Amino acid sequence: MKYFVDKSSEWQALAKHYEEICSVHLRDLFKDTKRFDTFSIHDPNLSLLIDYSKNRITDKTMHLLIDLAQKAQIKERIADMFSGKKINVTENRAVLHTALRNMSTHEILVDGQNIILEIQKSFDRVHLLSEQIRNGKWKGSSGKAIQDIVHIGIGGSDLGPRIVYEALRFYHNGPRVHFVANIDGADIHEVVKSLKPETTLFIVASKSFTTAETLQNLITARAWLGKHDLKNHCIAITTNKAAAQKEGINEAHILPLWDFVGGRYSLWSAIGLSLACAFGFDRFCELLDGAHAADQHFLNTPYEKNIPIILAVLGIWYNNFFALETHAVIPYSNYLWLFPSYLQQLDMESNGKSVDMEGNSIQYQTGPIIWGAIGTNAQHSFFQLLHQGTKIVPLDFIGFKKPLVQIGEHHEKLMSNFFGQTKALAFGSEHENSYKRFEGNRPSTTFLFEQLTPRALGSLLALYEHKVFVQGLIWRINSFDQFGVELGKKIASDIFVEMSEKKIKNHDSSTQGLLKAYFNFS
Ligand code: F6P
């Protein structure tokens, strides 16, 4: 049971099938010349082609994996999520980030409240504020227009908006946006050192408004503003209005967030205000629209052609049968350099769990370790291991047909690497010199989008969100809580009190020794 969720016939059939296929080479599987047609999906509405033919699968594998997904009643669970059922059972919350990007529905009820009306009202405010900030009507306390926005937040309140900001830099046409997340003072210091208080606006994103890093950075921001009142230089987005007001933020400048939006899914909410300022509200809506298109695909496409379901079961195949512990993502776009970090939170905070929905300890493997970096840079660092190491790492390659920046032959050269690497990984190459031999049989999935537009980015992020959700369902875990981050926070806050009082309590000898060394106690 180290890898399999249970002993049901679906898991048994896959385990048996794994024995038949585990040593079959992709070179042999590709003797079927129709393999690409069988194992690729083109969705024109997403401007996306997914090629999963370079995975270690056959028709039978996919049938068995789809059986597994059907047994987990994925389609029924998707409907539950979209309709507002409280599927985050450990926190008794609905999970409705999909409602944030659904411009066509008029009503979804949560606890008797129509949340669509609330969402629309908040977007009206995002629209208005972003326009005011972009066109200079929002004035700081000295009457000057805003030139720089400093977005303060951490985790989903940082990585979500930050990946979009980086990915869409090409479209930037508003105030500069800077991001501050770390409690290390160096972060905010380096950001504000070249800014002027009178033309800077802080946007503080925190679902809880209790997060230590964000509150400390807000304190530092307030001090840095000096005579410029926080009231004219700060907007907050939070579920905890009272806490934001207590910190001195003008009530009129607090935008709402709700329990039905998880932190790592919050970029689609008013937390995207910094993005609407940077790119314009219409571009922000295009991002939402792309995510909505992916939602519709997820909701309405049968299992066999459903991209998030296919990606999810491929991940299960490698994680729970091949016993591969990591999964890497390699975007071939410089603009997507932050995507692996964003995906780490999305996937590892969601599915890094070892207790099932019923509270039982899990005896099988759940979420993989996610990592990666952009191509071609990654080719010159860790690709050696991917090609010739003893570990097999399933990979996602993400590329675009048309470049945003067309200079000389850059794009063609970039994309020749994109195609060449998956080929080399899958098929390898013989050589009489063993050092120069490539075994191949290393699986990858290729995402080929038309172009890196806000809409395509929205679709990309939403497809991964849904993949993670499907995997959580198959592993029977709640992908929407994150209790695993609490213990470290609690111990840090206790130690902070001890450090402030210079009274070190009894700890284990390691922690004690380190604290003593820090304070130079004998
Ligand atoms: O690290 C845990 C976490 O709760 C994340 O899930 C969340 O995105 C982050 O902290 C920030 O939380 P908040 O938005 O409440 O400040």
What would you report as the Rg, rounded to the nearest angstrom? Answer: 24 Å
- Alpha-beta classification: alpha/beta
Count of strand segments: 13
Provide a count of the helices.
21
Task: Indicate how many domains the architecture comprises.
Answer: 3
Averaged pLDDT: 97
Q: What does this protein structure show overall?
A:
The chain has 522 residues and is an alpha/beta fold. The chain has three domains: 5-71 and 301-481, Rossmann fold, CATH 3.40.50; 109-283, Rossmann fold (3-Layer(aba) Sandwich), CATH 3.40.50.10490; 484-519. It contains 21 helices and 13 strands. It has a six-stranded mixed beta sheet with strand order 1-2-13-12-10-11, with helices on both faces. A five-stranded parallel beta sheet has the order 6-5-7-8-9, with helices on both faces. The chain has a two-stranded antiparallel ribbon with strand order 3-4. Helix 1 packs antiparallel against helix 4 and helix 4 crosses helix 15. The longest helix is centred in the last third of the chain and has 21 residues, at 454-474. The radius of gyration is 24 Å and the shape is globular. The relative contact order is 0.14.
SSE topology:
Elements: H1 9-21, H2 26-29, H3 35-38, E1 40-43, E2 48-51, H4 59-71, H5 74-83, H6 97-100, E3 109-110, E4 113-114, H7 115-134, E5 148-152, H8 156-167, E6 176-180, H9 185-192, E7 200-205, H10 212-225, H11 230-233, E8 234-238, H12 241-246, E9 254-256, H13 273-279, H14 281-300, H15 307-320, E10 326-331, H16 339-351, E11 369-372, H17 383-388, E12 395-400, H18 410-427, E13 444-449, H19 454-474, H20 486-501, H21 509-519
Parallel strand pairs: 5-6, 5-7, 7-8, 8-9, 10-11, 10-12, 12-13
Antiparallel strand pairs: 1-2, 2-13, 3-4
Helix pairs in contact: 1-4, 4-15, 7-13, 8-16, 13-14, 14-19, 15-19, 16-19
This protein binds 6-O-phosphono-beta-D-fructofuranose (F6P).
